[in-house]
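Sample intake sheet
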Amino acid sequence: MNKTLELVLRWLVGLMMLVFGANKFLNFMPAPEMPEGDLATFFQGFMASKYLMPLVGLVEVVVGILFLTKKWMPFALVLLAPISVNIVLIHLFLDPANIAMALLVFVANIALIYAYWGNLKYLFK
């Protein structure tokens, strides 16, 4: 992979994870209007658990910092994989109109996994 593309993807995803993860604790961005329906029910359950949103926020902040500092990238990519898959699946099944950013994170994660495959392939032996 081109080093410039890798840098852009790392910074783009790193900033997104850091900002959206920190927002789960600091609430500096207004929550989007939640329409009635399955998505609202899903998020109500997620929030009612009391631990899931802080856990996701913490993992997102950690991944964001690791991406931005380029430290432990293979570990950060493994941490981000289930988050990016779930973001896509939530949007695919509950909010397909707003799937674009979810796909961006997912595709960037896949591209960066490919770029760091030499460090990750041992997990699959």
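Comment: The chain has a mean pLDDT of 93. Residues 3-124 form one domain.
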